[in-house]
Specification:
294 residues, globular, 13 helices
C-alpha cells in the first residue's frame, strides 16, 4: 500500500514539474532559438542519464549494451527533434492550446500500433480513437480557409512523439529501461550538438537562471516519472498524466494571458476521455494475454 501511495506521489510530482518545465520552455522559446534551448537542456539531461547509468547495476557498460542499436539511436534522435518542435509550439501556439493537441498522443500511438507493431485493435478502441480524432478536429477549429498553419506544429510534435513511443515499445522487448534511458539522453545530446551551435546566442544574465531551472526540472521530472513506473503499472500512471493539460491551461491563462476557447475545452474533454478509455482497454487486453491459457 505504501509503495502504491509513493508511486502516485512521484507521478503527481513529475506532472507538476513537467508543467513548470513547459512554462519555462515557453518563456525561453519566445526569446531564443528552440534548437539552442533544447541543446543546453539535453546536455544536462545526458549528464544525468550517464550518472544514473553509472550508478545502476553493471555500470555504463551494461547500460550501453543493446540488442537494438539502430532503433535506440533513432529513439534518441526523434526525442531530441520532438523537444525542439515542442518548444517551438509552446512559443508560437501557447501552453494551453499546445497541450490540448499533445493530449491526443495516446490515440495516435494506438492508431500507429496497428501497422507498426502488428497489434489488433477491437471495435471499442477503434470507436474511442475515431471519437478522439473528432475531438482533435474540434480543437483545431478549421475555418473557411482550413486549419491555422501554426497548429500543425503541435500536431507534428504529437506525431513524432507517437513514433518515439512505438519505438520505445519495440526496444523494451529486448533492452532494459536503464539502457533506453541512457540512449535517449546521450544520443539526444549528440544530435542537438550538431544542430544547436548554428543557433548559438548569448543569454541575458537573468535567463541563465531560467535555463538552469529548465535543466533541473528536466532531470527531476524524468527521475520522478521513472520512480513512478517502478512502483505503479503504466495503466495507473498514464491517465494521471492528463493532469498536465489542466496545469498547462491554468498557467497559460494566469501567467501568459492566454485564452481558453469553447472548442479547446470541449475538444480536450473528448480527447482525454477517449485517451483514458484507450489506455484502459490496452491494459485489459495486455492482462488477458498474460493470463495462463487452460
Amino acid at each position: 500500500m505504501e509503495a502504491k501511495r509513493n508511486g502516485y506521489i512521484f507521478t503527481l510530482l513529475a506532472i507538476v514539474i513537467f508543467a513548470i518545465q513547459d512554462g519555462i520552455s515557453k518563456h525561453l522559446g519566445g526569446l531564443y532559438p528552440p534548437a539552442f534551448i533544447a541543446m543546453i537542456r539535453f546536455w544536462a539531461f545526458a549528464a544525468f542519464a550517464i550518472l544514473m547509468a553509472a550508478r545502476s547495476k553493471g555500470g555504463l557498460r551494461a547500460a550501453a549494451a543493446t540488442r537494438r542499436p539502430i532503433l535506440q539511436v533513432l529513439r534518441g534522435v526523434m526525442l531530441a527533434l520532438q523537444i525542439v518542435i515542442v518548444i517551438t509550439s509552446l512559443a508560437m501556439v501557447g501552453l494551453a492550446h499546445s497541450q490540448a493537441i499533445f493530449s491526443a498522443t495516446p490515440l495516435f500511438v494506438a492508431l500507429l500500433s496497428v501497422p507498426l507493431l502488428g497489434e489488433k485493435v477491437g471495435w471499442r478502441r477503434w470507436t474511442a480513437i475515431l471519437l478522439g480524432l473528432f475531438g482533435v478536429l474540434i480543437i483545431l477549429e478549421p475555418g473557411p480557409d482550413g486549419i491555422d498553419p501554426k497548429l500543425l506544429v503541435p500536431l507534428a510534435a504529437a506525431a513524432v512523439f507517437s513514433l518515439y513511443v512505438i519505438a520505445t515499445r519495440l526496444v523494451s522487448r529486448d533492452d532494459s529501461t536503464s539502457t533506453s534511458f541512457f540512449y535517449i539522453g546521450t544520443v539526444g545530446a549528440i544530435t542537438l550538438s550538431f544542430i544547436g551551435p548554428f543557433y548559438w546566442t548569448s543569454l541575458a544574465a537573468a535567463d541563465w537562471g531560467w535555463m538552469a531551472l529548465l535543466c533541473i526540472t528536466g532531470m527531476a521530472s524524468h527521475y520522478f516519472l521513472i520512480r513512478a513506473y517502478d512502483l505503479l503499472d503504466a495503466a495507473a500512471v498514464q491517465p494521471l498524466t492528463y493532469l498536465q493539460l489542466v496545469f498547462a491551461g491554468l498557467m497559460g491563462v494566469t501567467i501568459f494571458d492566454e485564452r481558453l476557447t469553447l472548442n479547446m475545452v470541449v475538444g480536450s474533454a473528448i480527447v482525454v476521455g477517449a485517451g483514458i478509455f484507450t489506455i484502459w482497454r490496452e491494459s485489459i487486453v495486455a492482462r488477458r494475454r498474460q493470463e495462463p491459457q487452460g
